[in-house]
């Protein structure tokens, strides 16, 4: 059997696992706005090269329909500026492993937004999947108090808030992208969203007067190398997923690509010497099971 689509989806999951760990490390060394600005600039350039050598032969998305442009730019502002702004904050506070687990809620939030605002009905299996996924996340982030009938956070409440805001931003970005790119090239759509993020982060850096920090970051060859590596893996993870949808069932590909919270556990144990508790592993597995049910 040809498992090209499934292999590409697994490559996506591995890519996103790698990039999240790289950016967790970068977020602790460089100001998040600077790191994000450099990341989206490099990502736009990399996507431009891919788009130029594929069927469209355009470095920039100059062929985008004008009626789609506004909504795609808004999608980039919400998903790739606000979403990634909070994502890096979450990396700083609770690390990539827990942040990526909370990000598994993104398809659930997208489905709920579709249901509430776009009147897209949910099946019983999808409703069950929502509860199972949320249960898996709850098992990880909450702990019961031994002497009181109360639940407390296992991790920084502020960090968890940042992660939920990042997930919400990504989910809203997905909804807007779906509304604005029904027929336009997927990679070029991502490039437009990145351009919106470039403008937004650039304005924020100017307002915060962080030009010297930006120049300093550009001069640090080691940090720039890791930003390029993290950007490369995340961008081409997206490209691999787009291609995976062409060669396999979209539900299977989506499920496989969502396994980053499980893949990140052995990496965290082996390379970062993290002490991971049993309930965190169980919660991650339950969450991925919920996502699997949701996509089928």
What does this structure look like?
By secondary structure, the protein is mainly alpha-helical. The chain has 12 helices and 2 strands, in the order H-H-H-H-H-E-E-H-H-H-H-H-H-H. Strands 1-2 form a two-stranded antiparallel ribbon. The longest helix has 38 residues. The model has no long low-confidence stretch (mean pLDDT 87).
Q: What is the rounded distance between the termini?
A: 21 Å
| Shape, principal axes of CA atoms | globular
Helix/sheet category: mainly alpha
Which whole number gives the mean pLDDT? 87
In the sheet with the most strands, the strands line up as 1-2
Order of helices and strands: HHHHHEEHHHHHHH
Into which percent range does the helicity of residues fall? over 70%
Oligomeric state: single chain
Largest sheet: 2 strands, antiparallel
Question: TL;DR?
Answer:
The chain is an all-alpha fold and 296 residues long. The chain has helices spanning 4-27, 32-52, 66-103, 106-117, 124-141, 157-180, 186-207, 211-219, 221-247, 250-257, 260-272, 278-295, and strands at 142-144, 151-153.
């Amino acid at each position: 059997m040809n498992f090209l689509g499934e292999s590409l989806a697994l490559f996506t999951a591995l890519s996103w696992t790698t990039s999240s760990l790289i950016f967790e490390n970068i977020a602790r060394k460089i100001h998040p706005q600077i790191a994000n600005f450099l990341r989206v600039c490099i990502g736009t350039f990399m996507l431009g090269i891919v788009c130029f050598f594929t069927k469209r032969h355009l470095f920039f998305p100059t062929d985008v329909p004008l009626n789609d442009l506004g909504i795609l730019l808004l999608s980039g502002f919400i998903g790739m500026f606000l979403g990634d702004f909070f994502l890096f904050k979450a990396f700083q506070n609770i690390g990539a492993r827990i942040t990526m687990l909370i990000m598994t809620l993104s398809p659930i939030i997208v489905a709920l937004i579709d249901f509430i605002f776009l009147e897209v009905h949910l099946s019983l299996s999808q409703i069950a999947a929502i509860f199972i996924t949320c249960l898996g996340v709850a098992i990880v982030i909450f702990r019961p108090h031994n002497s009181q009938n109360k639940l407390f956070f296992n991790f920084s409440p502020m960090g968890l808030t940042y992660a939920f805001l990042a997930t919400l931003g990504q989910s809203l970005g997905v909804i807007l992208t779906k509304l604005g790119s029904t027929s336009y090239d997927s990679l070029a759509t991502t490039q437009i969203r990145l351009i919106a993020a470039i403008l937004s982060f650039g304005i924020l850096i100017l307002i915060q007067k962080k030009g010297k920090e930006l120049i300093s970051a550009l001069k640090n060859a080691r940090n720039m190398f890791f930003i390029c590596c993290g950007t490369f893996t995340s961008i081409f993870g997206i490209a691999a997923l787009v291609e995976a949808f062409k060669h396999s069932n979209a539900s299977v590909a989506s499920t496989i690509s969502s396994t980053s919270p499980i893949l990140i556990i052995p990496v965290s144990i082996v390379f970062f010497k993290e002490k991971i508790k049993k309930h965190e592993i169980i919660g991650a597995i339950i969450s991925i099971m919920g996502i699997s049910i949701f996509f089928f």
